[in-house]
Amino acid sequence: MQKEKLYFSEHLRLLNEYANDAIFTSDSNRNILYANKKAAVIYGYERDELLSMKMDNLISPKSLELMHERLQELLDNKSILYESYHVRKNGEIFPVELSITYFSSEDNDYILSIHRDISERKEAEKNINHLTNLYATLSQINQTIVRENNKEELFKKISKIPVDFGKMIGCALYIKDEISDRLILKSCYGIENYFNYLLNQKDNNKSEDFVSKAFEEDKPRIINSLRNYNTNSQWIIRAAEAGINSCAAAAIHFYSKPVGALVLYSQDENYFNTPELKLLEEITTDISFALEVFDRNQKREQYEKEIEENEKRLARLFSNLPGIAYRCQVDRDWTMEFMSDATFNITGYTPDEFIENKIISYGDLILPEDRQFVWDEIQSAIKKNSSFTLVYRIKPREGSYRWVWERGVSIKDTAGNVVALEGFVSDITDTKEASEKLQKSEESFKYLFKHNPLSMWIYDINSWNFLEVNDAAISKYGYTREEFFLMTLVELRPEEEKENLIENLRKKRVRVTETGEWKHKLKNGEVIDVLIISHQIEFKNTDAVLVVAIDITDRKKTQTELLFAKEKAEAANKLKSEFLAQMSHEIRTPVNVILSFSNLIKDTIDSYLDQDMKEGFNAIEHASTRLIRTIDSILNMAQIQTGAFEINLEVISLYDDILLILHKEFLPFAQSKNLIFSIEVNCNSSLIEGDSYCISQLFANLVDNAIKYTDKGEVKINLHCSEENILVEVTDSGVGISEEFLPYIFHAFSQEETGYTRRFEGSGLGLALVKSYCDMNKAKIEVKSKKNIGTTFTVSFQKI
C-alpha cells in the first residue's frame, strides 16, 4: 500500500510538473509553496524566485479587489473559477483563467490554483467581435438596399450604417455631378464638424485628394496614419482635429463605370487591413448594385407603362368592334377566358358573367338543337387545322333566340396541343330573319330584297347567271341591273380567286345555309372583303341561290390592327421576361456574401465550435448552395425561354469529358447515403458533337436526382452503343415515379410531391432543363419507372 501511494504521488508530481498551465500551491497567507515549470515560463520568473513571493505579487493592481472578493467565495465554496489580469516579471499585464481549490491536509490549510494564459483566446474573441461588426454593417446595408426605394434616402441610410454598426467614426458618400464633372458630397454621418468643413468648401472634390485618386484610378485608397501622410492639405489638419487617424476610399460604379466614391473614417491608426478593405469593397459593390437596380426599376416601370398603354389600346379596339371578340376553352361549355364589351349588346350578359362560367356558360346560350352542330363543325376544323365559320342560334337573357355568325381558329401550344379558341361572334339575326321571310311571301320577299341595305342577289345554281339583284348591290358594286343580268357570278371575283370559285360552284353542294368570306371586285376595280351568306331557294321555277353580301373590309382592317396590337403587347411582355431573367442573376451577390462571411467566421472560430454550431454552419452552407443552384436553374430556364441561351457545338467524349468527371463529383454524395455508385462502359468510342456545358448539366441533374431520391441500393451509369447511337442510362433503386405523373416530369416546376410536407428539396426545374438541353443537342430522352422500385433515364446521341 505504501508503495502504491509513493507511485501515485510521483505520478501526480509529474503531471503537475509538465502541465500546460501554471500550477501553484500556497498556504492560507497566500505564500507560494510550489510552482511548476509552466508557471516560471508564463510569469517570467525563476522557480526559486516564485517560492519567495506571495500570490498577490502576480496579480495586476486592477484585479486585486476582485481577488479579495473571490477569496471570500473560496472559503464558502472550497472551489472557484474566474478570469483575472496578472502581471509578468517584465511588467506585461495579461489575462488569465483561474481555477482555485481550498483544501486541508494534516491540520494545515492550502490553496491549489491553476493559471491558464488566455491572451490568445481574448485576442481571438476581439477579432470575432470586430468581424461581427463588419458583417453587421454589410448585412444592414444589404437590408437597406432591399427595402429602400428612394435613392437619396438610401445614400443617407448607407452613410449612417458603418458608424452605427461598424464602429467607424464617420462615413461619406460622393457622387459625380455630370454637369460640373466633379465629385459632390451627397451624404455623410458622424464627425459633424469635419463634414461641415467639407460641405462649406467651394471645391469639395479636392478637399480630400485621396478620394479623387480612388475615383480617378478606380482603385481603393487607404491612409492608415494621417500623421505620416505626406501632404500639407488643410483637410488633414481638420481631420486630425476631428479625431480621424485613418481613412479609406473606394469607387462606386454604375454598370462598371465609376460614378462616385465611399469614404470610411476611423479613430484608430492602422485600422484598415484586409477585412476592412474587403468590407469597403463589398459596400461599394452593393451600392453599385443598388444604383443599377434603381435604373432597371425605372426602365421596368417604363416598360410596364408601355404594356399598360398597349393593353388600353387593345381594349379600345375590342370595345369598338360590332360583335364579340373572345378566347375560350375547347369544352362543351365553351368556357370563356376573355370576351369583349359588345358581349352585353348581343347576349344581355356582361363579359364577367361568362368568364370561367361565373354565372352562365356560353354553351348554355346555344339552342339545344344547334349545340351538336356547333361542336362537330369546330372539331372538324381543328382536325383540318383550319379556321371555322358558323351560323347558329343563341338565347339571350331577354327576348327570343338570335342568329349569330361566328368565325374562329384554334390556338395551339409549341407541342401542337389545342389550348384555346379565338374568334369573333356577330349578331346576324336581322339578316337571317330577312332571309326566312323571303320564303313566306314573294311580295314580302321582293320588298325586303329590294330595300335591304345589304347587297343581295339571286343566281342560277347551274349557269351561275344573275337572276335578280337588289339596289344595294347595284349601288355598292357600280354595275347597272342590266349589266348584272349579262354577267355570271364568277365575274365579281378578282382573277386570282376565279378558279377556286368555279371549282366550288361545280361541286353543287346542297345546303340550306352556307357562309364564307371572299374578295369581290367592284366595277371601278376596287377589291373589297365580303362576308357571303347564301341560301338555296327556288326562284321562278329555277334552282337558285340567294346571296347576302356584307362588306367587311373595315372589320378585317380592325382585326389586322387588333393582331398588331396583340403582337406588340407580347413583344413588350418578352422584354419584361428578359428583365426578370437578368434580375435572377443579380440575386447571387448577397447569397455569395452570406456564404463567404459564414465560412470566414467558421474558419476563424473553428477550434471553439461545438457540434451544434458546426451543424449550424453546415446548414447555412447547404441552404446557400441550394439557393444558388435554384437561381442557376431559374436563370438557365429564363434564358432558354427568351431565346438568349447560346450553345457551342464541339466534339467531346461522353465518358472522359462528362461522365467520369461527374462520377468523381457525386461519389461522396452517394457514399454519404451508403449507396453503391458505379459507372459501366460498353462502347469503344463515346465521341459525340454537342455543347459540353449543356450535356454536363443534363447528366448532373439526372445523377443528382437519382442519388437524392434513393435511400438504399445503388445508382448506376451505363454507357453503351447501338449501330447509330450512343446511349447513356442512369438507373436508380429509389422511390420511383408514379405512372400518373410520368407525362408531367419534363414540365417546369412540376414535382410529384408538393407543399410543405414533401420529403425532397428542389425547384421542379431540373428535368425541364434536362429536356431543353436534350432538344438543343439533338438528343432523345426516355424514362421508365415503377413506384418504390426505381427509375431509368435513357439519353441517346448520334454517333459521329
TrEMBL record:
The keyword Kinase appears for this protein: yes
UniProt GO molecular function: phosphorelay sensor kinase activity
Coiled-coil ranges (or none): 293-320
Pfam family of the protein (one): PAS_9
The entry's keywords: Coiled coil, Kinase, Phosphoprotein, Transferase, Two-component regulatory system
EC identifiers of the protein: 2.7.13.3
Domain PAC: residue ranges: 80-130, 388-440
Entries under SUPFAM superfamilies matching the protein: ATPase domain of HSP90 chaperone/DNA topoisomerase II/histidine kinase, GAF domain-like, Homodimeric domain of signal transducing histidine kinase, PYP-like sensor domain (PAS domain)
Domain Histidine kinase: 582-800
PROSITE patterns: HIS_KIN (PS50109), PAC (PS50113), PAS (PS50112)
Domain annotation PAS: ranges: 8-78, 310-385, 441-507
InterPro entries (alphabetical): GAF (IPR003018), GAF-like_dom_sf (IPR029016), HATPase_C_sf (IPR036890), HATPase_dom (IPR003594), His_kinase_dom (IPR005467), HisK_dim/P_dom (IPR003661), HisK_dim/P_sf (IPR036097), PAC (IPR001610)
Top-level EC class as recorded in UniProt: transferase
Reactions listed under catalytic activity: ATP + protein L-histidine = ADP + protein N-phospho-L-histidine
Signal sequence, start to end: none
Protein known as: histidine kinase
Species name: hydrocarbon metagenome
